[in-house]
From TrEMBL:
<feature type="binding site" description="in other chain">
    <location>
        <begin position="147"/>
        <end position="150"/>
    </location>
    <ligand>
        <name>carbamoyl phosphate</name>
    </ligand>
</feature>
<dbReference type="InterPro" id="IPR006132">
    <property type="entry name" value="Asp/Orn_carbamoyltranf_P-bd"/>
</dbReference>
<feature type="binding site" description="in other chain">
    <location>
        <begin position="273"/>
        <end position="274"/>
    </location>
    <ligand>
        <name>carbamoyl phosphate</name>
    </ligand>
</feature>
<comment type="subunit">
    <text>Homotrimer.</text>
</comment>
<dbReference type="GO" id="GO:0004585">
    <property type="term" value="F:ornithine carbamoyltransferase activity"/>
</dbReference>
<feature type="domain" description="Aspartate/ornithine carbamoyltransferase Asp/Orn-binding">
    <location>
        <begin position="185"/>
        <end position="309"/>
    </location>
</feature>
<dbReference type="Pfam" id="PF02729">
    <property type="entry name" value="OTCace_N"/>
</dbReference>
<dbReference type="Pfam" id="PF00185">
    <property type="entry name" value="OTCace"/>
</dbReference>
<keyword id="KW-0028">Amino-acid biosynthesis</keyword>
<dbReference type="InterPro" id="IPR043696">
    <property type="entry name" value="ArgF'-like"/>
</dbReference>
<feature type="binding site">
    <location>
        <position position="142"/>
    </location>
    <ligand>
        <name>N(2)-succinyl-L-ornithine</name>
    </ligand>
</feature>
<dbReference type="GO" id="GO:0042450">
    <property type="term" value="P:L-arginine biosynthetic process via ornithine"/>
</dbReference>
<keyword id="KW-0808">Transferase</keyword>
<dbReference type="InterPro" id="IPR006131">
    <property type="entry name" value="Asp_carbamoyltransf_Asp/Orn-bd"/>
</dbReference>
<protein>
    <recommendedName>
        <fullName>N-succinylornithine carbamoyltransferase</fullName>
        <ecNumber>2.1.3.11</ecNumber>
    </recommendedName>
</protein>
<dbReference type="GO" id="GO:0016597">
    <property type="term" value="F:amino acid binding"/>
</dbReference>
<comment type="pathway">
    <text>Amino-acid biosynthesis; L-arginine biosynthesis.</text>
</comment>
């Protein structure tokens, strides 16, 4: 593996998931693979899980880890080619990416959607520029449109709960939120589920249609109750409007997932990438129920990162 920015970088998803599960069984089996290698984790945005799980994954492989909170601690980056930098930006992304490549053998970068300029976000302006100038493999720690390490962890979590039927029904259900939230987790989950052997359904209120690029073969409905019927896994996530880009539309609070709504499911397991706004997106009763997989998902972030770093290390 030479980079990891989407499901397209995966040759065989089942094999990758099984390899991650083997690493979970024996996390230190390759503890010398990364000896003498350094991974840089660059965050332009906040993080708990991605930051800590990526560090742990790299340490399990024997790598040195350097973390740069580029959104806070580094010089303010310029993104425009040819910019006359006589304003607030101090360092061009081309210089930052090139210099970080001198210090690191692999670089992970987190760069959220700004949710202001749709074209810039769709084109992954920050990630694309960083990758253009970096001279080492780049791993997305969540970009403007996708969150592949989260989606791989979600696939690992689903694989750990096999059912007595060929294909589980997996439902991605939109949830209310008070803030404007990017589409990356939802887009990415949709992409990875369509690459998996599952029956996949997306449900959201009218106006919250995702970019069709990521939903092309998925069943999409605005009827949440119908979508939830017989579901085996229910993934809860908010996202802002894609059509009315980045906006929070006037929406009914009844889209919050509650135990009552789950009565039509097949005792569905509940998933959320976290952080979660409790009792806004999902009720406490659901999140704290025995069917909740939220902490398993968070734990599996270690092994999704570890298997990806391992694959890249093996090709350095
Ligand atoms: N799920 C996830 O990416 O969590 P963080 O934003 O805390 O990294």
């Amino acid at each position: 593996m030479k980079q990891f920015i989407s499901v397209k970088d995966v040759t065989n998803l089942n094999e990758l998931v099984n390899e991650a599960l083997a690493l979970k069984e024996n996390p230190f089996a390759f503890e010398t693979l990364g000896k003498g290698k350094t991974i840089g984790l660059v965050f332009l945005n906040s993080s708990l899980r991605t930051r800590m799980s990526s560090q742990k994954a790299a340490q399990n492989l024997g790598m040195e880890v350097m973390v740069l909170n580029a959104g806070q601690d580094a010089w303010n980056w310029e993104f425009e080619e040819g910019a006359i930098m006589n304003g607030t930006t101090v360092e061009h992304i081309k210089d930052a990416a090139r210099v970080l490549s001198e210090y690191c053998d692999i670089i992970g970068i987190r760069c959220f959607a700004g949710l202001k300029n749709k074209e810039e976000d769709i084109q992954e302006k920050t990630l694309s520029l960083f990758m253009k100038y970096a001279t080492v493999p780049v791993v997305s720690l969540e970009s403007a449109t996708l969150h592949p390490l989260q989606s791989l962890a979600d696939c690992i979590t689903i694989a750990e709960h096999p059912l007595a039927k060929p294909k589980p029904k997996v439902v991605l259900t939109w949830a209310p939120h008070i803030k404007s939230i990017p589409h990356a987790v939802a887009n990415s989950f949709s992409e990875w589920m369509q690459a998996s052997d599952v029956d996949f359904v997306i449900t959201h209120p009218k106006g919250y249609e995702l970019d069709e690029k990521y939903t092309q073969n998925a069943v999409v409905t605005t009827n949440q109750e119908e979508a939830l019927k017989d579901a085996d896994f229910v993934y809860v996530k908010n996202w802002s409007s894609f059509t009315d880009y980045g906006q929070v539309l006037p929406t009914e609070e009844e889209w919050m997932l509650t135990p009552e709504k789950l009565t039509v499911t097949n005792s569905a397991k509940i998933m959320h990438c976290l952080p979660v706004r409790r009792n806004v997106e999902v009720s406490d009763a659901v999140l704290d129920s025995e069917n909740s997989l939220i902490y398993e998902q968070a734990k599996n972030r270690i092994y999704s990162a570890q298997v990806v770093f391992k694959k890249i290390l093996e090709q350095l």
